[in-house]
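dumping these here so i dont lose them again. two proteins, back to back, each one seq then structure tokens. dont judge the mess
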Amino acid sequence: MIAATLKSSVFDKLKFNKYAKVSDFVNAGPMPIRHFNFKFDPKTLDTKFYMQKEWASAYFAALSIFLTYGEELVIETARYHRDFIKDPVLKQRITALIGQEALHSKIHNEYNDIMIPHNVPVQL
């Protein structure tokens, strides 16, 4: 409803349509939860995977380490607030968000685990 209101009142009148797309998430249907298996292997881990630089790759490794904590916070917050939601569509989308964030966290943890044999300080 908010997206439709914005679209009709602002985007259409100011001709922003060529710069931004406003999606109608209310009528988009259920959010799919996508499952991935990257098959991480410590033997094939390239510790200089980004620009062939250790420092640049370490930046992304640090993101992977800390993102798991943020995702856990998102999951806990969404679970807590989901119980207060009355709208069944929104409740389903929050459940899908929880599932997607749990999968993200799982993948980050799998990647973090293969960094341990390469002396990357994963565990805080």
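---- next one ----
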Amino acid sequence: MAIQELRIARTAGRLCGAIVVLGLLGGTGFGGVREERAAEAVLTHQRLSFAGVRQWQRKQKTWVPLQRTGTKVLVVNLWSKLCKPCLGELPPFGRIARAWRNRPEVQFAFIADPPNQTSLQEVVEFWQRPEISVPLDKPCPGNRMPLGDGTGCMLEVPDVDPARSDAPLVGPTLRPLTLLVDSHNVIRQVLAGSIEERADDLDASLKHLLAILQSEDKDRQAQPSRPARAPR
């Protein structure tokens, strides 16, 4: 499939045709395996633009453009404060990010998207105090202890500076969504739906993709360089 620039209006229309509109207050947000496979087919091999993504630097207390750190793989998690499955998968994401902390070839980005659901201030406040409400008969995500009145949970968010996109990266209706993006900002793998119960799948996917990228690098290095053409 040819690599194309991911245009928001075009992609949003294609996703609406392929994906069931999210039920933001429950479930995984998808209609089933068929819809998840459709999301993967639409997004895989597309190139993302992070021009409108800003990251909150917690120590400096300022917003800056999201910067790639020279990594082979950028793990992009798209979340929204209104998407309960998105918030429920943050604790296992935190454990995965810690496990990969000393691997410089991998970088994590937790991007609030679409922007009309989570403001810049809400991103900052939620990362400082990640509290969500839950029904009385539901456990807290990640086995966290409920708050005093029993109707809320304090989550464990990843120890990564959060980010927010000024415009929808992949359309407004597709959440939760995790993208494995290579150094050229091309989406190499899509994990549609919550990873709360399948964190091992993400870990295995990361290892597999790194092996593929390493093999591709070796193949490129083994190819003989073409001699420069002599000027006419």
